[in-house]
């Protein structure tokens, strides 16, 4: 049975994306409900845009879709698919869905923000809004009480304007911010640093994992990327800033490299890093996608992956499992999947279920590097 969100006598049927059999996680939270209930009696101009930022699976986008022109901003391809899916399920009008690097609509009347997990992204978005918003725009942010700290509120005060909070309801809280245009400042540039051991210069946009240094898992995996003349097609799955795919391209200049991530900011970072670190990007491609949904069966020789173990604030292994299954489908016979993971995650148990052979090619106190052969 699909979950339903019932508020003020309206019912929406909402599902998470990708849709999975026996799904037990609901597609909204108490912060969504609090925000919707607060805005229920608000008088809205049907001609003036509503801007929704970081809507996870479409609860906010669906609720406001037929009340005014809606633009939803998200860095997640999966979220875009979830919102579109839930709009269709509820027979709601089409809305505009854009990524975080796109231009925002002018003169919005209402901005609704779901607090992101990443404060770097939040700061970036608040600075972007300060440039855009008119003084009369209402800005409301919703989040979990445990995630709203005094340091969080200082970010709103610093980058957007005077801020106050609501009482807590169901462990959720609202943040109200008045736009102060005098705080507008030049947008920050992506962070950049070097990796001398591998002769790399890396640039990261705000929502890319480990924004000001190379994450320790990715750094460890760099030492185990193979170079073989038989590799024709190599995939960096969940590429982030692209450092793994770039190193693979250097070691295998004869191969086609495809980097895939569901984050638009990650894909943008990866493209810029390829330009910075490769003599030629002719055989280097970057895609935004849900794992390997758009790849043909038996179309790759090597898949490299540093899988995440969370979706938004939910700790889960279903993303890693989808990555492993997709890799098994996409690899040619005798193709290889090389992954890195925390030792306690026991990824070898999952890989042994779908691959013919799994062995350990590297390890330290924290990580293990596994190779699975189809």
TrEMBL record:
Subcellular location: Cytoplasm
Domain RlmG N-terminal per the UniProt entry, residue ranges: 3-180
Entry EC no(s): 2.1.1.174
Pfam families for this protein: MTS, RLMG_N
InterPro entries registered for this protein in UniProt: DNA_methylase_N6_adenine_CS, RLMG, RlmG_N, RsmC/RlmG, SAM-dependent_MTases_sf, Small_mtfrase_dom
Gene Ontology cellular component terms for the protein in this record: cytoplasm
Keywords from the UniProt entry: Cytoplasm, Methyltransferase, rRNA processing, S-adenosyl-L-methionine, Transferase
Record carries keyword Phosphoprotein: no
Predominant location: cytoplasm
Function comment: Specifically methylates the guanine in position 1835 (m2G1835) of 23S rRNA.
HAMAP family xrefs: 23SrRNA_methyltr_G (MF_01859)
Protein name: Ribosomal RNA large subunit methyltransferase G
Keyword S-adenosyl-L-methionine appears in the UniProt entry: yes
MF terms (GO), sorted A to Z: 23S rRNA (guanine(1835)-N(2))-methyltransferase activity; nucleic acid binding
Reactions listed under catalytic activity: guanosine(1835) in 23S rRNA + S-adenosyl-L-methionine = N(2)-methylguanosine(1835) in 23S rRNA + S-adenosyl-L-homocysteine + H(+)
CDD domains xref list: AdoMet_MTases (cd02440)
Domain of life: Bacteria
Family: Belongs to the methyltransferase superfamily. RlmG family.
Residue ranges annotated for the Methyltransferase small domain, each copy included: 200-371
């Amino acid at each position: 049975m699909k979950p339903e969100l019932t508020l003020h006598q309206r019912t929406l049927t909402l599902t998470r994306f990708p849709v999975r059999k026996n799904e037990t996680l609901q597609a909204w939270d108490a912060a969504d409900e609090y925000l919707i209930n607060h805005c229920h009696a608000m008088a809205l101009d049907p001609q003036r845009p509503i801007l929704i930022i970081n809507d996870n699976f479409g609860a906010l986008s669906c609720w406001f879709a037929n009340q005014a022109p809606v633009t939803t901003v998200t860095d997640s391809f999966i979220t875009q698919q979830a919102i579109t899916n839930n709009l269709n399920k509820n027979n709601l009008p089409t809305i505009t869905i854009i990524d975080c690097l796109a231009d925002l609509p002018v003169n919005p009347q209402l901005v609704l923000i779901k607090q992101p997990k990443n404060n770097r992204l939040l700061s970036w978005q608040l600075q972007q809004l300060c440039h855009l918003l008119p003084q009369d725009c209402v800005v409301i942010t919703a989040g979990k009480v445990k995630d709203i700290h005094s340091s969080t509120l200082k970010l709103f005060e610093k980058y957007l304007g005077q801020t106050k909070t609501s009482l807590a309801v169901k462990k959720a809280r609202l943040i109200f911010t008045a736009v102060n245009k005098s705080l507008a400042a030049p947008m920050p540039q992506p962070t950049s640093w070097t990796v001398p051991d591998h002769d790399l210069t890396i640039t990261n946009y705000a929502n890319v994992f480990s924004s000001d240094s190379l994450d320790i898992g990715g750094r460890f995996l760099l030492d185990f990327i193979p170079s073989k003349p038989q590799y024709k097609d190599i995939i960096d799955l969940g590429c982030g800033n692209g450092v793994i795919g770039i190193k693979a391209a250097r070691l295998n200049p004869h191969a086609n490299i495809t980097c895939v991530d569901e984050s638009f900011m990650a894909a943008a970072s990866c493209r810029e890093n390829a330009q910075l670190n490769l003599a030629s990007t002719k055989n280097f491609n970057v895609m935004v996608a849900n794992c390997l949904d758009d790849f043909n069966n038996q179309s790759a020789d090597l898949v490299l992956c540093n899988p995440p173990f969370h979706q938004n604030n939910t700790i889960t292994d279903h993303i890693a499992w989808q990555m492993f299954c997709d890799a098994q489908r996409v690899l040619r016979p005798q193709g290889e999947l090389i992954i890195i993971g925390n030792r306690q995650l026991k990824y070898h148990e999952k890989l042994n279920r779908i691959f013919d052979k799994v062995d350990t090619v590297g390890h330290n106190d924290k990580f293990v590097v596994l190779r699975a052969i189809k």
